Amino acid sequence: MIKRLDQIEGLISGLKPGRIAVAAAHESYVLQSVAAVHAKGYGLPVLIGDKEKILALADEMALDISGMAIIKELDTLRCAEIAASLVGSDEADVLMKGQIQTSDLLKAVLERDRGLRTGRLMSHIGVYEIGHYDKLLFVTDGGINIAPDLRQKVEIIKNALKLTRLFGIDRPKVAALTAVETVNPAMPSTLDAAALSKMAQRGQIPDCEIDGPLAMDNAINRVAAEHKQIISEVAGDADILLAPDIEAGNILVKALIFLGQARSCGIITGAKAPLVVTSRAESSEAKYYSMLLALAMAGLPDEDGKGIRS
Amino acid sequence: MIKRLDQIEGLISGLKPGRIAVAAAHESYVLQSVAAVHAKGYGLPVLIGDKEKILALADEMALDISGMAIIKELDTLRCAEIAASLVGSDEADVLMKGQIQTSDLLKAVLERDRGLRTGRLMSHIGVYEIGHYDKLLFVTDGGINIAPDLRQKVEIIKNALKLTRLFGIDRPKVAALTAVETVNPAMPSTLDAAALSKMAQRGQIPDCEIDGPLAMDNAINRVAAEHKQIISEVAGDADILLAPDIEAGNILVKALIFLGQARSCGIITGAKAPLVVTSRAESSEAKYYSMLLALAMAGLPDEDGKGIRS
To answer: Which pTM does this prediction carry?
Structure first.
């Protein structure tokens, strides 16, 4: 079982290098991480953006970008549209955010005529390596869906399951997080959690165990779960944490990274191709592994058994 | 400035020992922590519960409880009522939860005729010592208020300010946490955060700096705040984190404790006396410092300048 982020490299060995469309690539941190992925032979970047600035930055940082295609475009929104269109027309396998607001990038992705929409919900999934947890922890969705309803939470879980499948986790354990471990009519998140548990039990959400409501301690700490006498396959041993909403999810993952010293990466799934939308504040390590994750996901067969990549 | 939990001992030095009413004290962990506080001369426990069991447990664990009053009561709910009445009639300064559900204890506290209600909102505040933050972090409210509205958030902040005042923090920095640092009409928590910031600026919430909306990373990490070009007294240097709701608050503090290895303690304020409601899963250290915190709070003058304690 994969327990460390650096083992993600193993997931893409054997795959031919995927094509990465980088929207608004004229940013030093982005160029740096893209160059690292390219140097390892994992990806073929297509840089879309201010060509002069890209060349100047590469020169300044002594980055070898000689093998990368560059599409000159000064308008940031247009960069996103070009990147999305490349993915839509199968000319790129992964879309990466550069010097552009995430919301602007997503707008370009969601435009109907660019061919990235799949009818599925898009959601963010983060992968965390934490010193005091004995396996990787997948957290969703602290990035895209503000207040998902039950139907959307099902989609968010299904998106996460694709990632855990990639990691070779058999029947991942999903904890539907709330503030408590009991169903409380005054807390709608506990009702959703109960419903999700039952849906998994009835086979409506296959290939995983789901339990909830669970508080954070019950979900990831066996002693805490035992104190509460919770009888559950999931409690104390969760692989996937489903946050009740974007605030809880976002605050959780940032606490893990900035106060818990977790190593992390993450992607957005649900579009035709995986999206890498790391922020400036994230480490170059996070950017690097997020790209590898996206490339590995792009190498998976899709729902119809066809490969996403040609 | 107090930066470590063990410095809380300094807050109660010089105070005469406070009286702690322990509701349903027949539980080994509770007895152990109460005995530690008593042995140090900080508190005078009144144990309410199954007297036979209390004596047997003390004997078994070799705890000296000879100086403590014991009120024999086999009914758990009745234990809570007695403890609350002791506080209501100024016969105890602090109320501590023993072997009883928090909701049952709070019910006894909120009964009008017991004299614990103050007209103020009750809220939970936790204090966290985290390896990778250079001061103590106060988080509220992950324990009591499910989905506080703006008015209730003001009360929650005011309750927290009493605690930071006790710690000698001059004009504490309050971060109103959400998932983003921008106002978004689709995310009500960002609107509340903006309103709270303005209320502080206008003097409607005095003696503190408030800024929000802030994402978790912007609130506690200066580099992350700079990346987002946030100009703020609070960003990157928060003392108090106001969670948008109970889920986000509860998940945050449990992640800090169980994955971030934070040392912690906490109390409920807003009633006539501080309440200690630590759970079984919490460490004995957390129980010990929570009691000291409650005793120190009980030693503060109240709103009218009168001491809570006689």
So the answer is: 0.93
